[in-house]
Write a sequence for this structure.
């Protein structure tokens, strides 16, 4: 008796695509792409040696001196300051709402697409660090400064346009940046001593 | 004229699985693109500092890294436990940064050279003196765009 050849049924593979797409989506969601994060900064270009002696012509009231000591203490304008209070201090300095003669001078200027605004055009934040200060402290201070500026920009945008800064049109964002430019200057401890 | 079809046993047409390899390849390529290979083996111990306001690093091909920290335990016999700088795969001296940056920059395409960013990946306990020296060296070679690597801090 001859055996009947049985047909092997084909496996239905139509769901395979679905399964692999499911996998794809699963991995898409779960993969952390591990993007590096950081604080970006622009260094000032190097100065030729002859110019080094000529100190920049900045009025004293326009300078906010921040000093990080070897013991990781933050000295703001000669006063020991806690890192949490730094942001408020810096914001107060940059804004100078009441036109305080000790705070940076307000200069009224025409800003494109906003109009006349009085702002502390010439303020400078001077950040000095001692050689033994910890990097973490430095980053803390830097990030507080960035936070202060972004808070100021946001506040201004809210007041003027009733919108958050990041939701503004690009040209308005540029204009707000003109009013609150990040003017942070870094000096090494030994340069300061020379000046004194 | 209604035509009533008799229920006949219809055979399911065999599904072509020829697209399956494509799908698998898509998966493969996706993961190939997403996975970032470790660019170097660390010789120094780095715990990045934490910061409240961080930005994402963009254009990875334009970023060059400088690693700063204490040598890992297996290198401490020969290199000591002082903070050291690592460029590419080897320990380096601060004076070597300038030539490193110049070399790396000249290897880039001309239109990208101005966009080069130097990322300083330093341990959070690094003394600022070292960082300042690195910055000074970078300024000398006009590598002015820098990034301090830091992790997002959720709260104080």
């Amino acid at each position: 008796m001859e055996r009947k050849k049985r047909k092997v049924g084909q496996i239905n593979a139509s769901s395979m695509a679905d399964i692999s797409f499911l996998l794809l989506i699963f991995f898409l969601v779960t993969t952390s792409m591990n993007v590096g994060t950081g604080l970006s900064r622009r260094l000032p270009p190097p100065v030729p040696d002859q110019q080094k002696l000529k100190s920049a012509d900045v009025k004293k009231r326009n300078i906010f001196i921040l000093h990080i000591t070897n013991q990781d203490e933050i000295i703001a304008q000669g006063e020991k300051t806690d890192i949490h209070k730094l942001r408020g201090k810096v914001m107060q300095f940059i804004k100078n709402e009441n036109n305080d003669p000790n705070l940076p001078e307000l200069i009224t200027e025409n800003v494109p697409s906003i109009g006349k605004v009085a702002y502390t055009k010439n303020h400078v934040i001077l950040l000095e660090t001692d050689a033994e200060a910890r990097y973490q402290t430095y980053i803390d201070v830097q990030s507080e400064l960035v936070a202060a500026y972004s808070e100021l920009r946001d506040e201004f945008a809210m007041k003027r346009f009733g919108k958050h800064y990041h939701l503004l049109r690009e040209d308005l964002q540029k204009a707000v940046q003109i009013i609150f430019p990040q003017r942070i200057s870094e000096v090494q401890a030994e340069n300061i001593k020379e000046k004194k | 004229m209604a035509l009533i079809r008799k229920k006949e046993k219809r055979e399911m047409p065999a599904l072509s699985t020829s697209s399956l390899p494509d799908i698998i390849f898509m998966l493969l390529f996706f993961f190939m693109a997403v996975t970032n290979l470790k660019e170097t083996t660390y010789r120094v111990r780095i715990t990045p500092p934490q910061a409240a306001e961080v930005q994402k690093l963009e254009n990875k091909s334009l970023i060059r890294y400088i690693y700063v920290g204490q040598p890992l335990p297996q290198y401490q016999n020969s290199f000591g436990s002082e903070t050291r700088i690592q460029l590419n795969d080897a320990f380096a001296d601060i004076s070597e940064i300038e030539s490193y940056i110049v070399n790396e920059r000249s290897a880039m395409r001309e239109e990208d050279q101005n966009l080069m960013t130097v990322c300083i990946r330093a341990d959070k306990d690094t003394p600022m003196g070292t960082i300042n020296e690195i910055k000074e060296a970078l300024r000398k070679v006009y590598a002015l765009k820098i990034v301090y690597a830091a992790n997002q801090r959720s709260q104080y």
User: Anything to note?
Assistant: The first helix of chain A runs from residue 14 to 30. Chain A touches chain B through 49 residues (CB under 8 Å). Chain A has one domain: 57-195.
